[in-house]
């Protein structure tokens, strides 16, 4: 979404000769980035260092794709969910997206498809001066803040319920809406 916003801003400002290339990258950069991250993850699991850890009982941490609901109405409501399916991954999504995926989503190992194309997309983004590194850093900071806020809200809710129970009061039955990352 953040890269698409940068693309849209460039297009609105008049991208000239880059306009068509920018339009072709909409909705592609984040998926390409995830595919490359997934490929690197799979490669790590094949390295001797990891295999030695696995032989000693270590289990891999799964990759997490967080809040993969589609925000742009130009895309399918299951666009990102379908694109980010692969073994050893976890995908969190809004309930609306989960319902849509149950209704008409397609299951497949899409993260393993078209790895060369994923690299080409990121090279094109770099050649068009889209700041993927800057966007990624900002998203990591923002995501960390949002997860921290959600955890703090959960902790506060549990603490309030504990106090109410200890005081003999009926606990609050509704929790605050969780923050989304």
What does this structure look like?
The protein is 60% helix and 3% strand. It contains 8 helices and 2 strands, in the order ααααβαβααα. The protein has helices spanning 2-13, 19-25, 29-46, 48-55, 79-83, 95-104, 115-127, 132-166, and strands at 63-65, 89-91. It has a two-stranded parallel sheet. α5 links the parallel β1 and β2 (89-91). α1 (2-13) packs antiparallel against α2 (19-25) and α3 packs across α7 (115-127). The longest helix has 35 residues, at 132-166.
Sum up the overall morphology in one term. Answer: globular
Biggest sheet features: 2 strands, parallel
Gap from first CA to last CA: 13 Å
Question: Helicity range of the residues?
Answer: 55-70%
Q: Could you give the count of β-strands?
A: 2
Strand arrangement, major sheet: 1-2
Report the β-strand fraction as a percent range. under 5%
Determine the oligomeric state from the structure: single chain
Rg is: 20 Å
Structural class: mainly alpha
Q: Secondary-structure element order, as H and E?
A: HHHHEHEHHH
The number of helical segments is 8
Parts with pLDDT < 50 across at least 5 consecutive residues = none
Mean pLDDT comes to 91
List the helices and strands and how they pair.
Blueprint: H1 2-13, H2 19-25, H3 29-46, H4 48-55, E1 63-65, H5 79-83, E2 89-91, H6 95-104, H7 115-127, H8 132-166
Parallel strand pairs: 1-2
Helix pairs in contact: 1-2, 3-7
Question: What is the compact description of this entry?
Answer:
The chain is mainly α. The protein is built from 8 helices and 2 strands; from the N terminus they run H-H-H-H-E-H-E-H-H-H. Helix 5 links the parallel strand 1 and strand 2.
């Amino acid at each position: 979404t953040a890269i698409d916003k940068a693309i849209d801003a460039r297009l609105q400002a008049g991208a000239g000769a880059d306009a068509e290339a920018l339009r072709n990258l909409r909705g592609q950069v984040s998926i390409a980035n995830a595919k490359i991250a997934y490929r690197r993850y799979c490669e790590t699991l094949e390295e001797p260092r990891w295999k030695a850890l696995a032989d000693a009982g270590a289990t891999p941490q799964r990759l997490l794709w967080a809040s993969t609901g589609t925000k742009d109405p130009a895309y399918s409501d299951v666009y990102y969910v379908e694109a980010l399916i692969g073994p050893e991954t976890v995908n969190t999504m809004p309930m609306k997206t989960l319902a849509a995926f149950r209704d008409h989503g397609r299951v497949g190992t899409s993260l393993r498809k078209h790895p060369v194309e994923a690299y080409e997309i990121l090279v094109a983004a770099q050649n068009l001066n889209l700041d993927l590194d800057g966007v990624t850093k900002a998203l990591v900071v923002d995501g960390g803040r949002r997860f921290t806020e959600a955890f703090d809200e959960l902790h506060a809710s549990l603490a309030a319920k504990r106090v109410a129970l200890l005081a003999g009061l009926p606990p609050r039955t509704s929790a605050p809406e969780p923050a989304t990352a």
